[in-house]
Structures
1.
Amino acid sequence: MSTETEPGDVLLTMSGIVKTFPGVRALDGVDLEVRAGEVHCLLGQNGAGKSTLIKVLAGAHQPDGGEIVWQGKPTTLGSPVAALRIGVATMYQELDLVDGLSVAENIFLGHEPNAFGFTRRGHMRAEARKLMRRLGHPEIPVGREVGLLSAAGQQLVSMARALAHDARLIVMDEPTAALAADEVDNLFRVVADLTAEGVAIVYISHRLEEIRRIGNRVTVIKDGRTVASNLDSHTPTAELVNLMSGRNVETVFPHREANTTDSSHEVLVVEGLTRASEFADVSFTVNAGEIVGIAGLVGAGRSEVLETVYGARKADSGTVVVDGKRLRPGNVPAAVAAGVGLAPEERKSQALLLDQSVANNVVLASLPEYSRAGFSDIRRELRDARATLERLDLRPADPRREVRTLSGGNQQKAVVARWLVRDCKVLLLDEPTRGVDVGARAELYRLIHELAASGVAVLLVSSEVPEVLGLSDRVLVMREGRLLTEAPASELTEAAVLDMVMEGSEVMA
Amino acid sequence: MSDVGEKSSVDKPGAAPGGPLAGEEPVRTGPTTGVRTPSGLRLDLRLTILTGVLVALCVTGYVLQPDSFLSESNVSTMLRLAAAIGVVSVGMTFVIISGGIDLSVGSMVALSSVWMTTLATQSYGPWVMVLCALVVGLGAGLINGVLIAYGRLVPFIATLAMYASARGLAERLSDGRTQVVEQQGYLDFFRGDLFGIPTLIWMLAVVYVVGWVLLNRTTFGRRTFAIGGNEEAARLAGINVKRHTAMVYGIAGLCCGIAALMVVARTTSGSSTNGMYYELDAIAAVVIGGTLLSGGRGTLIGTLIGGLIFTVVNSIFTQNNLESDIQNIAKGVIIVVAVLLQYGTARNRKT
Ligand SMILES: Nc1ncnc2c1ncn2[C@@H]1O[C@H](COP(=O)(O)OP(=O)(O)OP(=O)(O)O)[C@@H](O)[C@H]1O
Ligand SMILES: [Mg+2]
């Protein structure tokens, strides 16, 4: 690809971009300017229009107005092919891989190396292997079906695909949402390599510390409009949050009132829980009113433990006792009846009915509570759903909207909302804040605290160690399917936890 | 069951980065078997089971009629009877892998067979008859494809419409009569042998080989899997999903045209009643072969074996003079068992 632009030159200018969907003006005149060789961060609340903007840039959405200038020339991007051809590659927020195809086939999907229509498979695999090595993961077999990889592995494939295009501009829409700390480092190393070669990166994330680490300039979008551009990436958090939401959020982790844990009342008792090849001999308790966090790398077996407690996976051995009653293994209805709720990790595949309304999704686990003599009380459903949406700042707070049309972070809020309208005794939260913006995140933390204060036992899994430490009373550390250690959160530091999950060294704080 | 052990052995040399990603894999694969399966192996396992079923059926047939069942003439008869549906099943496999369905294949066979045997067409000689069948099949298939891809009709509806109207048109063209083939050249070739093997069986083999290469070795084939597996991802990757979808239905139609050649050769006539229930038999063969009806996964070899299983069952029943009602019940049972088998493996795949 010819280098017509020097690092620092303006590569892309989007001005006055407008995009409307039925009933929403997602973009209402957004401006964005990206220079070659920079990491340009896009910030904004959930539903601000970030993903919509980059889909316009990727040719996946057609704008209703505005102008796109690429390397000094006005351009229309009529299709994804057109965008790829000029050198814009995109990693979408929602993974866009084909489960049934291999890693290599996914990486080269749409531009397979071929001779007379025959795919050059050897060549394709060799190239794919090179890309995986560049991403620091030569051990992922390029012939393996993508559906069999973990979420982080899939994210890497998606990244490799963007690299395979030899692009001038790579858009990354929340690439780290599914990644653990070490993977994030890996990604940033690749980003640094790319920018050194003059490739521009548009980077979207709700984790401000990441923006501080790799970002050069920041553009803030609010309600479909650019409210600030050309900001330094070290702009103080308070100012950024204020620009994004117009609100003031002092601390992300709200102060926790004196621990109200009633340690005499163990609500959830798990003993010797084992599933062959996933995790072994996991035992712990959660008291009423307590928040227990599980830290560990992706693949450590945390989600599997949660799903097994919930009965979505059947334990090979071990017991789960809720409020003194032993749960039948592998039986979700029994767990739900006993007052257990699970907000699962994969919102799209595990939690949401995408084509149904937000209200239907929110009340899904509480239908009996919302019916009289078998008939649904739709008015009450809508009312309660709306109240929960407002609490979580889910936008637009219209319970009748189809979930599919919500932004990623707002879909995540709908997943959590399901268990807020129901009185649970035990709440299992798997990555509850994945993709949720800073302001809403603080609100969600406050809600979790309130739930605990009302006596709910909360078990939380999160890949963000600060979140685990900041939110929990007690922390369990898992590695390779085993429980390594258990300690009060106040006695642990982020570094100590990271050490434990990665190396397994016996450091205790 | 050594997965946990394997996991740590992966970790040691590579140290921290990556270990957990590769180590995650056994979690997703079948915990019930506990075997690490590289992609495809599980399908192969199913193919082995299917082949086993096929062999068992052949043995049964042999035991019941030791003199005739595996005789050259019976095998050749079986295959010639199965050839047309076999070819139709190839097209059906493409359609189902791409995430669609084609209910109109039987009607397209009928239409092609009638159109190629009208007096007018026959007057141009055997090669024009062949060309006519292929063009009619391809054309009808493309109409399906365009309606589905560009007209946004659901495959079920679009092909249901073709199911009704193609046979209707065939009836009209033929005036409801059976049109006998007068072109001796046509019959000589297609009813003849090539190196001692009937032409029809050669055609079946060639269609399968070409179909296999197209599906597994070409960009077109791999994109068919992609569209069936995740249409949105395929679109965003820059694949022209609409054109591709239209072409997949075109292939199904073309296969029907080829099948019409075979049916006409076998029955020495074209008729609007040709190809009755082909759609059911073809879908059954594809499903028994392990292709997911939801798209994105499947094999042609499975379809071939699935079709052969039906053929052998048919032959066993006719050779032993059993009623066709029992035969249909047996077919139903086979479909259910095959789908249960498929359900089991699909469940292991995605926990
Ligand atoms: N296909 C669609 N149909 C209708 N509305 C849509 C569609 N896609 C997005 N929207 C709406 O457009 C607005 C912007 O959504 P977008 O996905 O761009 O937000 P975002 O900034 O990426 O948020 P997040 O941080 O949660 O990912 C939202 O109000 C969303 O509901
Ligand atoms: Mg988004």
Note: Confidence is low (pLDDT under 50) at residues 1-41 of chain B.
2.
Amino acid sequence: MAKRVGMEVAIAAAEAVALCRIDVAAVYPITPNTHIAEHLAEIVADGKLDAEYITVESEHSSISACCGASGAGARAYTATSSQGLMLMHEILPIVSAMRLPVVMGLANRAVSGPLNIWNDHSDIMPQRDSGWISFFAENGQEAVDMSIQSFRIAEDPEVMLPIVLNIDGFQLTHMIEALELPSQKEVDRYLPPFRPLATLHPDKPVSMGAYAFPDIFTEVMKVKDSVLIDSKKTILKAWDEWGKQFGRWYKPVETYKADGAEVLIMTMGSMGETASIAVDELRAKGVPAGLVKLRLWRPFPFEEFREAIKGAKVLIVCDRAVSFGGPGGPVAAEVKSALYNDAGRPAVLNFLIGLGGRDVTVENFKDILEKGVQAINKKPAGGYIFYGVRE
Amino acid sequence: MTTKKKYPEKWTELNPGCMVFEAGSAKAHKTGSWKAQHPVWDNRKCIKCGVCYIYCPEACVSRTEEGYYAADLEYCKGCGICAHECWPGAIEMKEEEV
Ligand code: SF4
Ligand code: SF4
């Protein structure tokens, strides 16, 4: 039976990962890591989990160790944050190209400089094209559930791709929440043992990560792209089965009061909860506002996204990272390109909010939604706005 | 015997993760054509220490029947490491002729 606990989200995520019976955790054991890594170390040291806990000298090494471990046939996990992810950057596309289903818990934090450490999405956005599946959790329960789902999806023979689970740093990782921890039996029922495509073993030699000449490289990239796109089928199936088993349902794009909404606000991660309160308050006043939450960042769920925003006149995209000198926040840029060929597309407003831990309140979201309402009749200027910047 | 294709013809024919299940298959790629120089051994100076054999990053230096050493030029990259490491100076790098 699942147990209801009051627990710090990072600790709960570590508990969930331990329930997945990982074989190897390779982590950089200090800052910028979180309690996810620390608590996993405790679980292993206490003998509660038979796993190899490798404390490496950098995140470049932690992801490399996971890559090797996964190649050897181990279920491998790593956790990191901000600068740590930047240091992993070089290895990320190698893990996906080698089809190694490593799972990473990422406590999203701002990337330096200046040194900041608080929550935003500037760490994950530069990794967008690494070929990893990328999920966003909205609350502690989702961080727990999706940690477990991640292994099942990543290791599906049709997928065999690494997954990064984005869990907002501080806003989620450092909060104590009431949540349900599934039992070992329940997790074992949902998550079969890892069956690798091949393992590094001297009895049956195999080369992983071999060299590709120009006359084959394009084909390799085509495979990488199509495997990632096709992974959505498995993701949907795994979420469906999760819903049936645990009663909590997951969708690539979640909506809240979006039916009949003329103005939609789109968030990723923890901000959805605050934005939903703003939507409630405006709806109570008769304002046709609604919320769209993007859970699946890669592969981008084009169909579900179009379905979710159908009928809206204005779509407000909240970005938590800056694409300096570019077309707007990274999410808005993608949303706009996704909508380009749709005749009835809504006007898109782009706000850069919650950068480097700047608090975004219900009042802020109401203000942003009201700006969206004004844009129903007056076409917005385009571009993007640093919301709340002191002028 | 069926003749093996050098490369998969279509992207759908690639092994997952480009894994290679055949040991030693890199031998099929004679990458020695990249070099601009090649090593030439003067066995009169060679003391048969085997340092060139150990240092060659291509592992293309091997021992001959007489106990001297020689490179397989189909794989040698012409990096010159063997010549640099051979302290009696038995190896000289010579320009490739075009
Ligand atoms: S390093 Fe020089 S001396 Fe030693 S075996 Fe090679 S050629 Fe001979
Ligand atoms: S030149 Fe370089 S590659 Fe060629 S034999 Fe010498 S060490 Fe090996």
Note: Residues 214-246 of chain A form the longest helix (33 residues).
3.
Amino acid sequence: MSNIHGSLGELHALDALAAGRTTVHRLHPLAKLCSALIFILAVVSFGRYDFLPLTPYLFYPFILMALAEIPYGILLKRVLVALPFCLFAGLSNVFFDRETAFTLGSVTISYGVLSLLTILLKMYLSVMAALLLVATTPFVELTAQLRRLRVPMQFVTVFEMTYRYAGVLLLETRSMGMAYALRSGGKRALEMRHMGSFVGGLLLRGFDRAERIHAAMRCRGYSLRTVPRAPRPLRGADVWALAAIVTASAVLRFVRLF
Amino acid sequence: MLEIKDLTVEYADGKRAVDGIRFTLGAGENAALIGANGAGKTTLLHALVGVLEAKTGVVAVDGVTLVKKSLCTIRKNVGLVFQNPDDQLFMPDIFEDVAFGPRNLGLAEDEVKTRVDAALETLGIAQLARRSPLKLSGGEKRLSAIAAVLAMEPQYLLFDEPTAFLDPRARRGLAEMLSVLPQGKLIATHQLDFAAQTCSRVLLLQDGKLVADGGIALLGDKRLLESAGL
Ligand SMILES: Nc1ncnc2c1ncn2[C@@H]1O[C@H](COP(=O)(O)OP(=O)(O)OP(=O)(O)O)[C@@H](O)[C@H]1O
Ligand SMILES: [Mg+2]
């Protein structure tokens, strides 16, 4: 069960990053949310073979990471999580779409490979944009902003709860696992015949904890209906940052460099 | 004044955990809520802030009756410190957690910060501000959970086993702090000496019923306490 501590650390690594104090962190959450959305929209709107025209968009994650002083490794690990899904989606193209797109020296690149690369790049760019948003904006501010934008409250709640309960569930797993191990007579792993009741118990405990945490939140004034106040009005810097990202995304979208 | 009239609370399985309780707690009054395990202390405290719905009876805080519509007002005026601090701390760090309530009250950010700092200071845990609640000791979590409630600046404080997880010194510190805080308090506890240190009044629960209500002299009544399972 020791890896649970690791997972907990993981879960809160982005939180720790979000507490930073750089220029990017200090931007208004609305500006960051909109730029990320527009960036992602621009990226996914490209055609399936548009690998080259997409490459200039790499400026966004790299510039932002440098400005926000975010170590590259942390985000990269998380992007890789999405990789298998995209590979799965893109690999079939490689087999079905064999027509040659162009040749690089002696290597022929088929349309299938080109589309796989495009899918991977799109995935990389959009996941990075989302991760960067989370890593530079404290979670509370992000959900507060979503609620100010009147995003349906069911959606925001699910988002908030998943985020909070992930940690709770991990902790419950740890304490149940510990209790199990201490009385299991030296067996290291969970026995198959106990698996059902362990997982069932874990779910029930998870619900129970979730309910009490939710009660504690309500006791301190948490309510879905109250729309949180904006931390501050938009400032010049927010507008400029937003304008710069929107303009760059649009220009790269419509003015083809390659 | 915190008024409780003929309050009855039942769980979904029909268990009547609080049964016809009636008492009032004056502003600034400190009362200990004692009773054996399962006597209904936690259930009563939860019903007072509307976490559990009463089957019958009335709860009123400074003249405001507890109904769905008044929940917000009641919870602003009555703060509950949960039995298990893990249930109460859910933000990435202690500062954020303590700030959670004041932010929900719609306070401006500098006012929030002032309140958080004051609450942490009062409990002597300013150094924990940027620590994650997942990595604190039981006692540190307890103090953080109390700070989280104090930052709401309620008129009444409800404590559910506040001494659990505290070492003797922290317990003494807590007793001192509680006697300094001006709010009216209802303190559920098994620790009779702690009750004697902090309260001037004792409410004794048994099987969901209020069986005694009086001064702390009650704590010396061995036979009464024993018959209530303590
Ligand atoms: N969710 C529940 N469903 C049904 N019965 C419950 C539930 N929670 C508590 N009870 C029962 O209600 C009674 C009162 O429980 P409560 O938790 O209020 O006791 P308590 O005085 O706080 O005890 P302790 O000192 O052990 O914390 C107990 O008999 C308990 O078994
Ligand atoms: Mg209890």
Note: Chain B touches chain A through 33 residues (CB under 8 Å).
4.
Amino acid sequence: MHFEMDWAVLWRPPNGDLALNAVFTTLKLSLVSWVFALILGTLAGVARDSPHRAVRLLATCYVEVFRNIPLLVQLFFAYYVLPRLLPIELRRELFALGWEAISAILTLSLYTSAKVAEHVRAGANAVDRQVRWGAMSTGLTWWQAQRFVIVPLFLRVIVPSLTSEFVTVFKSSSVAMTVGVVETSYFTQELGLQTFHWIEANSLGTAVYLVCAWSVAGLMALIERWARVPGLLRRGAAG
Amino acid sequence: MHDPIVEYRQVGLFYGGYQALADVSETIARGERVVVCGPSGSGKSSLLRCTNGLEAFQTGDVVVDGTSVRNCGNLPLLRTKVGMVFQQFDLYPHMNCLQNLTLAPIRVLRWSRQEAEKKARALLDRFGILDQANKYPAELSGGQQQRVAICRSLILEPKVMMFDEPTSALDPEMIGEVLQVLKDLARDGMTMLIVTHEMRFAREVANKIVFMEAGRVVDRGSGRSFFENPGNPRTAQFLKKILG
Ligand SMILES: Nc1ncnc2c1ncn2[C@@H]1O[C@H](COP(=O)(O)OP(=O)(O)OP(=O)(O)O)[C@@H](O)[C@H]1O
Ligand SMILES: [Mg+2]
């Protein structure tokens, strides 16, 4: 066991470059997944309120399936099982493309989108149906009412709950190490194993996730301030 | 009176197994001002929502300006002909007044933004709230919000305006200003269907009063006769309760 600290182990070549790559991979996994999750989650959440029964049912199944299966199980399914359902050439193609990272992004996106859908739905229910009636009575179609009135309005209401999901994506992205994606957690474990400088390695990991979380919180606070509907909170308090 | 704008033909509406409207037949002629009253839960709001197809009724039909709501291929367009103002809170809280007014003209009627805003300003000016154009709904008083909501319907140049208890959520001192707007519209010849408990106002403005109970029209009369000798004992009882 080494008891002597050696912080330089973090940037001594080639570790410095490797560390940067790993952090970059974490950012890439998380941000790409988040964008997909937002899009899919909003669609699924809105669809759960659709006037068409079949659409509602489909959206409900989607949400219940992806929300209730542990992320790790989904990832193993996507990484190990899905390719086996494909013809061998296609399977090779997948792995050549980097199926490790792709399957991680896929699962993170789906899992997170199911949770986003729940927030979206809660937000939608918070929007008075009078507002939708008002919009549709002026001739807006159901979709136009959603697009111009309902969705923007409740996105503003749900920004706080989305913040915590966004932070969770960064943390959850660490499961990608289990299928061999060299992201921050993978790298710090590897560095610890090779150099036995566990404290230094894990400090790096901790710092990266903390900085991500704080950045997200700061960004969302900005959005929250920008998106706040003037007087909405005041009216909520009064009503 | 043979120029009907809205015709209800034996309209029946069910919420699941509950019958909210039963066999409602009524005609609203051009320029007519009809007040609908009746106890809570009698189906007044439901009837209004059937008029522009917001509520899909199961039996009968509504004909608006010659178009059947049941077989309407373009409900959105039909809805622009039927202005609708609710009790409260149906303005878009994330848009300022001007944006509230111009959304539908731009998106549904395909007006240019410039054209829509010009028209919106003119309307806001007419109702004395031009200075509020860039404010958000929650920054306005209840009376001002209702005036904006009325403008949002009027900008589409509807054939008929429907009001669902437009003053019942307002503080007493604001009721008058909104009723005044309705009176002005009436004077300008707007066809109107108004659900209200303001009986003094009804007496002043209405050509026809319709009394509903349990999803049916149980009594109707011209403004004056309705109040002076209600034919139906239930109507008499209701009026007595409301007029005190
Ligand atoms: N979406 C709905 N689902 C089920 N029942 C409903 C729905 N909307 C209204 N109802 C019921 O239908 C009946 C008529 O309702 P409606 O709102 O049309 O009455 P109203 O005359 O406008 O009453 P109020 O004076 O209280 O506004 C009521 O018994 C109500 O509970
Ligand atoms: Mg009502």
Note: Chain A touches chain B at residues 128, 130-131, 133-141, 144, 148-149, 152-153, 156, 229-232, 234-235 (CB under 8 Å).
